[in-house]
Amino acid sequence: MNWPTAAGSDSRPDPDSEYWDERQETRPPGERRDEIIEKIGEQVRYAYDNSEFYREFYSDVDVDPRNITSFEEFEQLPILSSDDIKQEQKEHPPFGRFLCIDEEDIARIYGTSGTTGRPKVFGIGQDDWDRIGEWHAQILWSVGLRPDDRVIITSPFIQYLGSWGALAGVDHLGCTTFPFGAGMEGQTEQAVEWIADLQPDALYGTPSYALYLGETAEERGHDPAEDFDFKVMFFSGEPGASVPSTRRQIETMFDCEVVDQGSMAEMTPWMSNSGCRHLENGMHVWNDIVYTELLDPDTEESLEYGAEGVPTYTHLERTSQPMIRYWSGDITTWERHDETDCECGRTYPTLPKGIYGRADDMLVIRGKNIFPSQIEDQLHALDDYGDEFRIVVEREGALDSLQLVVEVADDAETGPDEFHDLVRQEIKSEVGVTPDVTVVKQGELDRTQFKADRVKDKRELAIDV
């Protein structure tokens, strides 16, 4: 086979076409799997031949990394973790021995924030970046974007790959792009006025930021549903776009469609998990762009459709710093394409609830497994909810307590006591634990211009003496 595919094609479908590449997107899944295993074989061979790390990492496996011909053989390769990357890059800075290309051939450098330890560094060659732009354009086509659309990007243009990946996709698609950014003081107020003047068709950012943008617009006298003209917003970075009540709130606030996207920065093209303009909730898994396995969080064994597990990703056409069997740490469930209620005709598996948590974000309280997205969904479904909340978990004696600080809307029809009791009842019904609830006025809790940080687990700070 021709591996990797040539990068940088400028051809685009007819604007009325549903598909960027109908054969690829609608082919029988068995036929697609045959091509995927060929790509896996080529990718693993390439990484083994060009990366000292992978030669060492695969030194004890019972299969030949230069001749992977079946999924059974592939699944015998070890799992790659975030800690593996950090340790490798610590010992062999800055890129580790993953690079596979000469450093002078790196076109772009990105990285993680390093808020949970040593930041990870990504070196991307130009041919890979061109393919990333083309793949993102193809996926954005399924979202409903077309070359005559105007797109505003409202996430920070820092080392965060989300903004740059979105920009690469909309640029390759031929859209008019406004890389506005986010994070500076007063920038959201400016965004409101720019949007009112320019009337973009689409927005990229995080769900939390979209809600903050809508609140800011209303404070400045705008009705986002009437005064703006968005047809779609596409999001990554946090679970909100597949949290049903949050999704509905954004759709109602802006009178537009909402699409959830995103895998991981390490796995760029990260749009390989993406909703489309027909999908009510969740994301299609474009597994012929980035191959995705769902693995048991404890045994790391492959899971069938319908199970809940950890997405584990493999690049299929990456010549610079390829990731193979990379453990995401996220939690989701998946289903076959013919189990998904979607009219698009694509034959990819689907994550019907999106990525709804991380294994390390799950709160175990009194024997119950609780994801923050469950609480978010219940709160957004309440008419008098004031748009922000915080979760605090503490240990009181031998028992853990779940504490919620929840805003009540300024125009609430229920009183604070009644709202308090309603929140307590709805959350207990959803997660099986009765929370201690504190009700505060709308606007009292800080808003975010990027990803929301709503959870504080004080149990991690407790030290037994």
UniProtKB/TrEMBL annotation:
Gene3D superfamilies: 3.30.300.30, N-terminal domain of ligase-like (3.40.50.12780). Pfam families: AMP-binding, AMP-binding_C_2. Residues 84-309 form the AMP-dependent synthetase/ligase domain. Residues 11-35 have a biased composition (Basic and acidic residues). Residues 367-459 form the AMP-dependent ligase C-terminal domain. It comes from the Archaea. Residues 1-35 are annotated as: Disordered. Signal peptide: none annotated. This is AMP-binding protein. It comes from Haloterrigena alkaliphila.
